[in-house]
Amino acid sequence: MKLALQAPPLHTLAIANSDERVAVNRVFCVGRNYAAHAREMGKDPDREAPFFFMKPASAVVDAAAPVSVPYPPQTKNYHHEIELVVVLGKGGRNIPAAQALDHVYGYAVGLDMTRRNLQLEARDKGRPWEFGKSFSQSAPIGAVHRAADIGHPAEAAISLTVNGQARQSSDIAKLIWSVAESIAVLSEFEELQPGDVLMTGTPEGVNAVVAGDVMLGAISGLGQIEVRVTA
Ligand code: MN
């Protein structure tokens, strides 16, 4: 094949205890998947079907080692959302929840960085959240821990500190829609593919960061990520 333009870069994630990497295909994100976070966003945490939004593969930043991300344009309200990240190893459509975990390659700690002003403005006008959520380097993600090595965590402390101060603290057991259920529903809308990434939603405590802040995000069993915001 002769490309007229240079091929876009691959965006990849490190795999824990391996020299192999995962090429990221698409990034799907679950909205409002912890009740206490739904409430802090002014919404009822009823168990309506889960909903999804997306980020481009270029949102992904390898945070297997401490990393910096630039403060993005068009916001003065740049928020952290600590999340359990799922990497799919096997695709499929209409995947039953009971088999969904067989499609998981591994798990990681990630941040769904958000331009909250743009998201809320869009939400309140009935417009897409797109530019609040979907921008370059908005998803720092740590090393992927293979399910073959660690199994499928159903309970684990999830936390975020900023400059050493606690901001978010919960447990992935509090997900309204489990990883398996989220994959099952998502696969009814779109045929999933290997390398697709699912960010499963954030617990309460989202808040703003500014240039110079250092975020430490952790999920028990999946290690931690250190992400510095630069001007
Ligand atoms: Mn999120």
Descriptors for this entry?
231 residues, alpha+beta, Fumarylacetoacetate hydrolase, domain 2, 6-stranded mixed sheet, 5-stranded mixed sheet, 16% helix, 34% strand, globular, binds manganese (II) ion
Briefly characterize the structure.
With 231 residues, this protein is of the alpha+beta class. The chain has helices at residues 35-40, 97-100, 116-124, 130-133, 147-150, 179-189; strands spanning 12-14, 21-23, 27-30, 52-55, 60-62, 67-70, 78-80, 82-88, 104-111, 114-115, 139-141, 145-146, 157-162, 165-171, 197-199, 207-208, 214-219, 223-230.
Give a written overview of the molecule.
It is a single chain. The protein is α+β, with helices and mostly antiparallel strands and 231 residues long. It has one domain: Fumarylacetoacetate hydrolase, domain 2, CATH 3.90.850.10. The chain has 6 helices and 18 strands. It has helices at residues 35-40, 97-100, 116-124, 130-133, 147-150, 179-189; strands at residues 12-14, 21-23, 27-30, 52-55, 60-62, 67-70, 78-80, 82-88, 104-111, 114-115, 139-141, 145-146, 157-162, 165-171, 197-199, 207-208, 214-219, 223-230. Strands 4-3-15-8-9-12 form a 6-stranded mixed sheet. A hairpin with a 3-residue loop joins strand 17 and strand 18 (223-230). The longest helix is centred in the C-terminal third of the chain and has 11 residues, at 179-189. The radius of gyration is 17 Å and the shape is globular. 42% of the residues are buried. The site of manganese (II) ion (MN) has 7 residues, from loops.
